[in-house]
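Hello forum,

I keep getting stuck at the same step: I have a sequence, I want structure tokens, and every attempt I make locally crashes halfway through. Rather than fight my setup again tonight, could one of you with a working pipeline run this one for me? It's a single chain of 397 residues.
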Amino acid sequence: MNKKIIVINAGSSSIKFKIFQQDNYRVIVSGLCERIFVDGYFKMKFNETQEVELNTLMPNHTKAIECVLDQLKKNQIITDFNEIIGIGHRAVLGGAEIKSSVETTPWVKEKIREHIKLAPLHNEPELTVIEIFQKLLPHATSVASFDNTFHLTIPEHNYVYPIDPTVASKHAIRRYGFHGNSYRFITIQMQKILNKNSVNLIVCHLGNGASISAIKDNKSYATSMGLTPLEGLIMGTRCGDIDPSIPVYLSRQGLKIDEIDSILNKKSGVQALCGSSDMRDVSSKYESNDSKAILAITMYANRVARYIVDYANQLENKIDALVFTAGVGENSMFTVKQIIDKVKLISLELDEQVINNKYESYKLISAKNSALPIYCVRTNEELMIAQDVNEFINKKK
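Reply #2:
Ran it on my machine without issues. Output:
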């Protein structure tokens, strides 16, 4: 029997999934369900070139998962569901008590439930999906891999907020940080690339959701996202750092809390500045001298550059590499150039001859006289989760 591990990333109206061969982590299939609760859309790619695409009703996450399992069997990717021996769930926030990836016991599920208030768009659907899979595939080892656990090594001076400590303690208010599985993967990759057991890095995870972290001796030392994924960089639709009195002011003007939350998370960022959250569109408009796109790119790049300089200072300029990853960081060299151009206190220089070269896993894009090596590295959060699942499976042997 070909044993397999499925990795799940559930959102409020979507489910992304990948299936790995257990023995060698080869990706067998990847796909997604979208528009759950609306109408329903399913797409799946397998055997490298084959695709299935269909519109089908998905009134809830249960029906979406049933669609996934049905299509896996219909397309003979799975012949017997006992082949799926492990399920890895990308969970956003489990608080400070969960230190690493864990099996989804009742206690762990309760911790996910407790933190729905801080990550409602992810924790609630992920908990729902965990319980659905436990009913449909009860034989499979179920593991939750949390976005925030990588950042639990951050020192107190970088995770405490300067607010009333009684209030902070009562409501578990602290910097948690996110994108942890991505940072964990990049750290391991850079150890291999640089042939070093211990690395100090500044890593820019730039996607629609974006963050930046300082990695010191392989561990997270500082990160831009905070109590929630809203803090830090300007993102596709999230505002990042703003005057914290703005939500209070808007509330006093009569806006409801949910309205304010929607504005800051879904109607801000690059989208608010120039009308699109897709950096491909924004860069195209920029090159056409669109004033709003120029404003958006300038603000976006300045914000990232500010964090790079801050983190270089925190690492005492003992940095092995500056790394760009995730959708924008891996693929938009236009955006990377804009960011590097805004870093004035560190003499960074890109190699124009290689920056646009195609690559599979990583490429060095800095010039020889750059103060720091600069890399683009393709991240693989799903692989990290699959490996976590495999560890728990092997412990049971």
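The first strand starts at residue 4 and ends at 10. If your local run keeps crashing, start a new thread with the error log.
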